[in-house]
Amino acid sequence: MIRVGIVGVGNVASMFVQSVELYRRSPGEPVGLIHTNVGGYGIGDIKVVYAIDVSRHKVGRDLSEAVFAKPNRVPRLIELPETGVIVRMGRVLDGVAEHMVEDFAPSDERQPTLEELADELRSYSVDVLVNLLPVGSREATRFYAEVAASAGVAFVNAIPEFVASDPRYSRLFEESGSLLLGDDIKGQLGSTAVHRALASLIAMRGGEVVESYQLNVGGNTDFKNMLDQLRLYSKRVSKTVAVATTQPAPERAVDRIFAGPSGYVPFLGNTKVSYIYIKALGFMGLPVVIDLKLTVDDKAMASAVLVDVVRLAKALVERGVRGSPGWASSFYFKHPPEPARSEEEALASLYEKLDELGIPVEPRRLPAWMLKKPLGEDPRYAFLRR
Ligand SMILES: NC(=O)c1ccc[n+]([C@@H]2O[C@H](COP(=O)([O-])OP(=O)(O)OC[C@H]3O[C@@H](n4cnc5c(N)ncnc54)[C@H](O)[C@@H]3O)[C@@H](O)[C@H]2O)c1
Question: What structural domains and CATH numbers belong to the chain?
Answer without folding.
Answer: 2-186+301-329 (3.40.50.720), 191-297 (3.30.360.10)
